[in-house]
Structure to design on (263 residues):
């Protein structure tokens, strides 16, 4: 991938990754991403983070080992967990002299013209100030991403909002495979495809874990949304060392979903 004109980047991290499969917020992983973001900011990039993990962290704090079915319990867990989530982000980012800011958004906020304009203006101002916005869904008032997506859709809508050049979806898988690698030994990693190609949706299927509601399907659909404003999407493992800085140096990691006219 040619990263020469890639300036504005949205990085999305899912619940399993942020909480090390529900074991509690993974300070080491968040610290590693923060360090890479500090490097990217120094080289003139603008970075926004969309982070899940509030429900998973809330479940941990409450001692719940099984994800509840009841939506208000999930929303309560998110409210509890969001406190821990932003605490860890703030302290990890501070270690690299980065400032972060909490933004809680809903898809409906972005569909409303006035709220959309306000969210955009706030994010643009934060980016100008050199601050990394840490965005999550406002789970108290809506349930979209709780039911389906684990913030994949929100990350794509944020990419549209601020006209990002690149959406990086970090996950606990190596990227998009031709079949589910957890169940099919013949599955192979797809390194490049066109965002919005309908065959990708069939390939991605369902699949999520105890701690999150996202699977590959919502990631493929997120790429389809992000490309509407010209953004490419990369789905890659968040456990890969220096994944962000290596991707931005042009290294091929994971699955690259590009606009039709780009390679
Ligand atoms: N916004 C939610 C969170 O941060 C979505 C993830 C989920 O449904 O587990 O926890």
């Amino acid at each position: 991938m040619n990263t020469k004109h890639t300036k504005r980047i949205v990085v999305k991290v899912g619940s399993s990754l942020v909480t090390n499969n529900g074991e509690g917020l993974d300070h080491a992983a968040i610290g590693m991403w923060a360090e890479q973001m500090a490097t990217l900011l120094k080289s003139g990039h603008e970075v926004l983070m969309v982070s899940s993990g509030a429900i998973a962290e809330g479940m941990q704090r409450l001692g719940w080992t099984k994800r509840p079915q009841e939506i208000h319990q999930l929303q309560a867990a998110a409210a509890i967990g969001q406190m821990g989530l932003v605490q860890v982000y703030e302290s990890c980012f501070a270690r690299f002299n980065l400032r972060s800011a909490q933004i809680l958004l809903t898809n409906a906020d972005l569909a409303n013209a006035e709220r959309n304009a306000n969210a955009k203006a706030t994010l643009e101002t934060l980016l100008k100030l050199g601050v990394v916005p840490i965005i999550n869904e406002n789970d108290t008032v809506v349930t979209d991403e709780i039911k389906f997506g684990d913030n994949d859709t929100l990350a794509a809508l944020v990419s549209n909002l601020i006209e990002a050049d690149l959406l990086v979806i970090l996950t606990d898988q190596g990227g998009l495979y031709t079949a589910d690698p957890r169940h099919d030994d013949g599955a192979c990693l797809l390194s490049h495809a066109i965002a919005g190609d309908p065959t990708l949706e069939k390939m991605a299927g369902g699949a999520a874990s105890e701690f999150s509601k996202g699977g590959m399907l919502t990631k493929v659909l997120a790429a389809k949304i992000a490309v509407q404003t010209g953004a490419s999407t990369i789905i890659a493992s968040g456990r890969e060392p220096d994944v962000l800085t290596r991707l931005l140096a042009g290294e091929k990691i994971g699955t690259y979903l590009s606009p039709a006219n780009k390679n």
In short: Residues 15, 52-56, 78, 136-137, 139, 145-146, 150-151, 212-213 surround glutamic acid (CB under 6 Å). The first strand starts at residue 8 and ends at 13.
